[in-house]
What we know:
By secondary structure, the chain is mainly alpha-helical.
Amino acid sequence: MNEINIPYHLLIPFLISFLFSLLLILAYWKWRYKIKRKSLWLSLIVFFITYAFFVGIAFYDDISIQIKLNTFDLNHDGLFTGNEITKEQKIVFGKLINDTGRNMIVFFAIILSGISSIFTFVISNGYFYYLKLKQAEK
């Protein structure tokens, strides 16, 4: 194993969600006093940040396993032969091959991010309602 294969199925969703979350944060910061549905904006920001977090961890994990597997290729020919095949190499190679969780995180992260954004929406909506009531008392 000489080269590191970049998992584009993880990199592209990570970059899109990261850039979209940055754009949402900048837009929220610029128009924070004019926005009427702040809890919706906050929940969208939390959704994209959480999604980028989960997919970014999977991307990092995939790259780090490939780097660790490359350390076992002693003669740098891209194949594992003879003394290169050890118990540790088999374990690391198994982690690289059995990657269902890392590949499916693109879909599972939507569910996890959706749950976290729903919690954020409910809590922030309650908080802004509380602030409105508190301001009406004055």
